[in-house]
Design a protein that fits this description.
Blueprint: E1 9-14, H1 17-30, E2 38-42, H2 53-63, E3 69-73, H3 76-87, E4 96-98, H4 103-115, H5 120-129
Parallel strand pairs: 1-2, 1-3, 3-4
Helix pairs in contact: 1-4, 4-5
Length: 136
Amino acid sequence: MSAVSGRVGVVLVSHSRQVAESVAHMALGLAGGADVPVVPAGGTGDGGLGTSSELITEAARRVDRGAGVAVLADLGSAVLTVRTLLAEEDELPPGTRLVDAPFVEGAVAAVVTASTGADLDAVAAAATEAYGYRKA
């Protein structure tokens, strides 16, 4: 979607291409249109529901600007796919981290925080803190 040198990149992994794209669009919009490297990696290579290690790897490489890559995933097998890629150690850029965060709220928090130029630890912390957002 977007790319800026030196900023933490964000990859949004969903079982649905449309969900990943919509969450990326919303997060960037709520970040005031900030120029943050965010790429959705949703669905399978043929557009079906599921996850694709190839799409995730490609997305992580596209957002990597040397400051780290925060990966947020929606459901169990997406998480397992990212974990497998991380375990292989040469599939994802160095400094790639799977962030334990709610998908939508965490994506917004990650992108907004990345837009400030924050480091990967701060981006991951902001996304994780989204678990505590109260709605009532």
